[in-house]
Amino acid sequence: MAKKKKIPERKCVITNEMKPKKDLIRIVRNKEGEVFVDESGKKNGRGAYLSKEKSVIEQARQTGALNKTLNTEVSPTIYDELEALVEGE
């Protein structure tokens, strides 16, 4: 009997919902302190996940949740990049 492949799930830092990893966007802070959007989901560094919804990204911008999760200051350009990514889907 074949086993079903387990789908990896991650938690959105805003909504606290567990979702399949492919339904979330990963933001990474690497050892050098650079923060960037990781579309592959495989880059090294401290990661935080956001749902692919404009309202969630806007809430993250207002609350500064990514700053707390990644222990660094997240540039406003990251939020702009996230919004463009969500609108492009």
In short:
With 89 residues, the protein is α+β, with helices and mostly antiparallel strands. It has helices spanning 54-63, 65-70, 76-88; strands at 9-11, 18-20, 24-29, 35-38, 46-51.
3D structure, described in words:
The chain has 89 residues and is α+β, with helices and mostly antiparallel strands. 33% of the residues lie in helices and 25% in strands. The protein has three helices and five strands, in the order βββββααα. It has a three-stranded antiparallel sheet with strand order 4-3-5. A two-stranded antiparallel sheet has the order 1-2. Helix 1 runs antiparallel to helix 3. The longest helix has 13 residues. The protein is globular, with a radius of gyration of 14 Å. The chain starts with 8 loop residues before the first strand and ends with a helix. The mean pLDDT is 93.
What is the topology?
Elements: E1 9-11, E2 18-20, E3 24-29, E4 35-38, E5 46-51, H1 54-63, H2 65-70, H3 76-88
Low-confidence stretches are none
**Overall shape:** globular
Secondary structure tally, helices? 3
Our Rg estimate from Cα atoms comes to 14 Å
Order of helices and strands: EEEEEHHH
Q: What labels would you give this structure?
A:
two-stranded antiparallel sheet, 89 residues, 3 helices, single chain, three-stranded antiparallel sheet, alpha+beta
